């Protein structure tokens, strides 16, 4: 590479591009008054920003903890876990009763359940019972397939009314965003982000691995546990808004590493958020307003992310 | 810009005074309409009506009305007047484009079954009526919708004429179905079949036209039940109605006829008597037979089929 | 190398024979049951004891028998195809529906519906085979670039490739408004099988026999290219034969009934578990077990909401996923 920019410039460029996408999303093909656009496109933009934020942050954090660039929460079946909790809750409580609860309470309980389950799974995974990374990912992907097929099968066997779950949620959609959850998810994501901001100086040490981090005086165990809670909250919020996104985190985090050319979290964390915004908002802008196409962005991400995943695997194996 | 009707009124010099007067009066006149999602006051002879429902466009076409806004999808052949031209394109049948509604400020919006969930959202952008049919009273809903459209466009007489023509045809059809034995309706897609019974979206054949069901326990389910050819043989309907979903979306529909051309279907009463009817998927699937034009055609097609069998 | 290192037990001849008899009895039993179950009221006893009128024999010969035969043929062919693919990929955790072969075949059907609807059967089969071949080739080409193969990276690459091909198909289907048809092709079931509608599967049966006869040589492939060449096997030609077998078997199943998942994974692995890794002798077991699984899944699909049907592919996908997970977790030590 002939041109080397320092990280400040690189991040500024990314941020500029992200801002450009956001502005484009709000202003392209406007045929009506601004008040309405703000009211109508605003929440969708906000939701996409929030999703980009949550997924970018959670993926980079997770990859730092696991010291691996191929592993993401989504690939471990994290978001599927969230859907599973929803279905189980619906089956236990019944749709009507559950819907009667206040939205923040409902969402909070769901997130709590996911966090507990996720911690349980992590305990199993990192206690040494399962060591292979590929095994983890395989199990995660298979769990996703199993969940999808099981829902489909139940819908065929039972009366469609019995499972009052929104079918659209079993696949990601950036067109139908669950805007009613925006406030609650913002609160959760905000709280999680504040914690990250609080401890961000420790992240670079954490990424050096357990042994070095402990030698450098880090309370490794406790930090990892808390970060895992943060990750579970972030993933739950993103999944509640748009549904599961298998390869999106992978795509965003790896692009951020490559584009920033550094591993320091002060650069990679914001960069991953910017890349996420560019992919989501820019992609949606391109599909919806420029190409006027009905192709769902989630499918395009699935395609590109899948190819990237294979490329990463190939490279990782060869190294 | 002068309203369209007013301009036309002005150009007819002989009737200048009377016409412009009545147009002005019409512009202020409103009528209160009872519809599937409540009650709305709408202008008579709206100047900028957006209709996000093919079947309503069909009924309006029968009434001789052309509206200003349609869904963004390509219109089916029978509504080809809306294919090209300067119409407001107001989004998909399921998801109306709210920005377009906001920017065009229609004085009437009509939504159908597929967008019923969005009624409250859409109604913020102008007087909106919802013409979703009541699944328990499909014919009644169709007649109500035709009447209310006649009221809005001041074509009550035409609406009544269409309704009484349809009622007469339905009566004729019912008389015929009373002596035709039973029937079964299947939808085909990608080489598979699903059966639909009374109370489903295609249940009209039993619920309105009075043909007894060949199978009683077809539960109500929007997507029907996957069935085999043996099921058809066991049901042994006197009439088999086949709808090719793949043809509804503009794919050539030889597949359904090929699928049904087999010895088990031939062994049913319907097969032996040649009483297999291929229903027009545009009328039945795309428009739900909820427009008075397609409904009339569907009824006439069935009358023809049943009369041919009587001869 | 998972193919060779997992040979703790050799298959003793008596053990194989015992299982052969058990599985044969199972398949015969399931097949008879399959002849007896359907939406129509007809039991085999009526045909055998009473005076079989025209209707009964029609149900038997036009519907039940073809369906049962189709299940037998498709199940055994897919199981053997899975086995061959496993030997070529030198990994026991792959099968046609988890590496992109089936997904590519369904994509082929989609392209046919788009460009040449109503094409005659031979043309359909040929084109779908080409697609299936392409999908398998991509997978093997990617594998070849992985020098150091961890046992789990192979199924992982396969699953993601299958997902990528499926996503491409879904995008195209969405553009063509054929999403529901693609869904039907992706979830195979035997509800529309009749006399005259499944005979392509006999071709699959022929290919299965070829595969069984050539199984010996495929075992050599599993030991690597150098070894194969040393013992005088034409490696390239054998790989081509394997590719053609897998692609054509998958294509014939997809053309007749749609994609059927996981049989090619479950059957060979269960047989390995029962009788060890000596596949030369146990390949008939693999075929029989595949047939038994297919029959069982379809029977369950016919019985759960009788007289309506649940696609057997859905039931197989759920059980197959569970079996896959069990295999992974049981064997977690050896993957590490």
TrEMBL record, chain A:
<feature type="transmembrane region" description="Helical">
    <location>
        <begin position="107"/>
        <end position="126"/>
    </location>
</feature>
<dbReference type="GO" id="GO:0005886">
    <property type="term" value="C:plasma membrane"/>
</dbReference>
<comment type="similarity">
    <text>Belongs to the binding-protein-dependent transport system permease family. FecCD subfamily.</text>
</comment>
<feature type="transmembrane region" description="Helical">
    <location>
        <begin position="299"/>
        <end position="317"/>
    </location>
</feature>
<dbReference type="InterPro" id="IPR000522">
    <property type="entry name" value="ABC_transptr_permease_BtuC"/>
</dbReference>
<dbReference type="GO" id="GO:0033214">
    <property type="term" value="P:siderophore-iron import into cell"/>
</dbReference>
<dbReference type="Pfam" id="PF01032">
    <property type="entry name" value="FecCD"/>
</dbReference>
<feature type="transmembrane region" description="Helical">
    <location>
        <begin position="74"/>
        <end position="95"/>
    </location>
</feature>
<feature type="transmembrane region" description="Helical">
    <location>
        <begin position="12"/>
        <end position="30"/>
    </location>
</feature>
<feature type="transmembrane region" description="Helical">
    <location>
        <begin position="42"/>
        <end position="62"/>
    </location>
</feature>
<dbReference type="InterPro" id="IPR037294">
    <property type="entry name" value="ABC_BtuC-like"/>
</dbReference>
<keyword id="KW-1133">Transmembrane helix</keyword>
<keyword id="KW-0812">Transmembrane</keyword>
<protein>
    <recommendedName>
        <fullName>Enterobactin ABC transporter permease</fullName>
    </recommendedName>
</protein>
<feature type="transmembrane region" description="Helical">
    <location>
        <begin position="267"/>
        <end position="287"/>
    </location>
</feature>
Automatic annotation (TrEMBL), chain B:
<feature type="signal peptide">
    <location>
        <begin position="1"/>
        <end position="27"/>
    </location>
</feature>
<keyword id="KW-0732">Signal</keyword>
<dbReference type="InterPro" id="IPR051313">
    <property type="entry name" value="Bact_iron-sidero_bind"/>
</dbReference>
<dbReference type="GO" id="GO:1901678">
    <property type="term" value="P:iron coordination entity transport"/>
</dbReference>
<keyword id="KW-0813">Transport</keyword>
<feature type="domain" description="Fe/B12 periplasmic-binding">
    <location>
        <begin position="48"/>
        <end position="310"/>
    </location>
</feature>
<dbReference type="Pfam" id="PF01497">
    <property type="entry name" value="Peripla_BP_2"/>
</dbReference>
<dbReference type="GO" id="GO:0030288">
    <property type="term" value="C:outer membrane-bounded periplasmic space"/>
</dbReference>
<dbReference type="InterPro" id="IPR033870">
    <property type="entry name" value="FatB"/>
</dbReference>
<comment type="similarity">
    <text>Belongs to the bacterial solute-binding protein 8 family.</text>
</comment>
<protein>
    <recommendedName>
        <fullName>Fe/B12 periplasmic-binding domain-containing protein</fullName>
    </recommendedName>
</protein>
<keyword id="KW-0408">Iron</keyword>
<dbReference type="InterPro" id="IPR002491">
    <property type="entry name" value="ABC_transptr_periplasmic_BD"/>
</dbReference>
<keyword id="KW-0406">Ion transport</keyword>
<keyword id="KW-0410">Iron transport</keyword>
Automatic annotation (TrEMBL), chain C:
<feature type="transmembrane region" description="Helical">
    <location>
        <begin position="152"/>
        <end position="173"/>
    </location>
</feature>
<feature type="transmembrane region" description="Helical">
    <location>
        <begin position="123"/>
        <end position="146"/>
    </location>
</feature>
<keyword id="KW-0472">Membrane</keyword>
<feature type="transmembrane region" description="Helical">
    <location>
        <begin position="68"/>
        <end position="87"/>
    </location>
</feature>
<feature type="transmembrane region" description="Helical">
    <location>
        <begin position="283"/>
        <end position="305"/>
    </location>
</feature>
<dbReference type="GO" id="GO:0004930">
    <property type="term" value="F:G protein-coupled receptor activity"/>
</dbReference>
<keyword id="KW-0813">Transport</keyword>
<dbReference type="GO" id="GO:0005886">
    <property type="term" value="C:plasma membrane"/>
</dbReference>
<protein>
    <submittedName>
        <fullName>Iron ABC transporter permease</fullName>
    </submittedName>
</protein>
<dbReference type="InterPro" id="IPR037294">
    <property type="entry name" value="ABC_BtuC-like"/>
</dbReference>
<feature type="transmembrane region" description="Helical">
    <location>
        <begin position="99"/>
        <end position="116"/>
    </location>
</feature>
<dbReference type="GO" id="GO:0022857">
    <property type="term" value="F:transmembrane transporter activity"/>
</dbReference>
<dbReference type="GO" id="GO:0033214">
    <property type="term" value="P:siderophore-iron import into cell"/>
</dbReference>
<dbReference type="InterPro" id="IPR000522">
    <property type="entry name" value="ABC_transptr_permease_BtuC"/>
</dbReference>
<feature type="transmembrane region" description="Helical">
    <location>
        <begin position="238"/>
        <end position="271"/>
    </location>
</feature>
